Amino acid sequence: MSVVTLQFGQCGNQLGEELFDRLFSEAAAARPALAGAIRRLYFREASASTARRGLYTARAVLVDTEPRVVQRCLQGAEDDGGERPVRGWSYHGAGSVYRQGGAANNWACGFNVHGPAVAEQVLATLRREVERCDRLGGLLALHSVAVGTGSGLGSHLLQVTRDAYPAVPLASVSIWPFEGGEVSVQCYNAALSLASLYETVDLAVVCENERYLELCRLSLGEPKPSLASINAAICGNLVRTLLPSLRSSLGVDSCPLLRLSGHLCAHPLYRLATLKALPQVAHGTEAFTSDGWAGLQRRLVQLVESGGTVDRPSAASGASQGPCRVVAASAFLWGQGAAEASLDPLRKLPVWRQALDPLQVHSDPHQVGGLERSIGFVSNCQAVLPTLQTAATRATGMMRASAYMHQYERYGLSRDDMSEALLSLLQVQNDYERL
Ligand SMILES: Nc1nc2c(ncn2[C@@H]2O[C@H](COP(=O)(O)OP(=O)(O)OP(=O)(O)O)[C@@H](O)[C@H]2O)c(=O)[nH]1
Ligand SMILES: [Mg+2]
């Protein structure tokens, strides 16, 4: 079984490149059976024309409204005059679709202008990639919700992809912007993206740049994190839910995150998930870290209760409204003794008792990221609430003042369309609040 990744816009493409690097290096460090499973899932053997740049080709479709980032991804290791080691994998040039001009920071421009212009070409490119899979296990989209291409074009392409593959698990990794607001209309774009995601994907993994910035600073020891560091931190969490685990009930040849989308998002009102991983250690110190399973699980429970991402003592006290409630979650224990570890501490997680099988646990002896023991965690829970509340408050305030609406009307998005998206955002916020 294989998974095809869709990379939309600058953020989606940069994040995708980091993710494939991570997956490939995990395969290189894994025992042969697991390495084979990882490569079959996310890579295919390179054709003769691309083999000189690596033996494997990422199963990916790259899309953008400007050529720069896609071209850099395609050039990969050759780009910097050989300073970076040859990475052993590459993208296939024919797997990319890009235009000129960008999407003007505007969801409507991406959705209504660029979307229809490239949809057919993207679907044809995706079809070719799907035909190279023995069996398609799912589609994973990477994008930012903040500006024009990843959010607007991404939303359009996810809709046509859903129509073309109605029965295939479809998940997104949706990056939320920094709170500081690089773009004044980012809350509009996020609301429009979220409304669309709720109609198309089975599961949307929400990764907030602000939280990962804090993770890099406070826990990973990087005083001034770059976007590349943030991508590395996101992929460090993500990869623990994407690697197949041979000892798990999910089967050797499937992507856990996609296989679990039905379990995590069984209820149609709750489609958002967040990631966590422990331990959080600075790059280069992995070999000196040897946390026990009981300690890791206890800290994970504290982190989940607090709704946070960063593991620090103050997170233990929990939020003032009580512990963050969880609809459903999956924990992945990676490393020495994972299959034999007692799971007693994890049973204290604040999971929703009405859900069937609310917590699933999977394990494998592979040491992810060189850590003797680590836990990855994906949960559908109230941790998304602060992000939803901030976006909803800002977007409704701007809408009341009719701010920037003309920019959207210019690209065919009416006030009613915007109001509907905001209502949908408020509804999602309300549903998570009432959990
Ligand atoms: N985590 C992460 N965030 C990114 C990255 N690149 C951009 N962003 C964030 O994504 C948002 C901007 O989205 P981009 O992906 O740059 O824009 P785009 O989708 O290409 O859309 P346009 O350029 O407007 O056509 C901002 O919130 C950035 O902080 C990245 O590599 N990693
Ligand atoms: Mg761009």
UniProtKB/TrEMBL annotation:
Metal-binding among keywords: no
- A Gene Ontology MF term for this entry? GTP binding
The family database entries (SUPFAM superfamilies) matched by this protein are listed as: Tubulin C-terminal domain-like, Tubulin nucleotide-binding domain-like
Matching entries from Pfam families are given as:
Tubulin
Q: Which GO terms describe its cellular component?
A: centriole; cilium; microtubule; nucleus
Top-level taxon in the UniProt lineage: Eukaryota
Where found in the cell? Answer: Cell projection, Cilium; Cytoplasm, Cytoskeleton, Microtubule organizing center, Centrosome, Centriole; Nucleus
Its GO biological process terms? cell projection organization; microtubule-based process
Q: Which residues form the Tubulin/FtsZ GTPase domain?
A: 39-250
Query: Which InterPro entries does the record cross-reference, listed alphabetically?
Result: Delta_tubulin, Tub_FtsZ_C, Tubulin, Tubulin/FtsZ_GTPase_sf, Tubulin_FtsZ_GTPase
Coarse class of the primary localization is: other
Q: Does the keyword Nucleotide-binding apply?
A: yes
Q: Which keywords describe this protein according to UniProt?
A: Cell projection, Cilium biogenesis/degradation, GTP-binding, Microtubule, Nucleotide-binding, Nucleus
Family, according to the entry, reads as follows: Belongs to the tubulin family.
Which purpose does this protein serve, as stated in its record?
Acts as a positive regulator of hedgehog signaling and regulates ciliary function.
Protein name (Swiss-Prot/TrEMBL) = Tubulin delta chain
Which species does the entry assign this protein to? Polarella glacialis (Dinoflagellate)
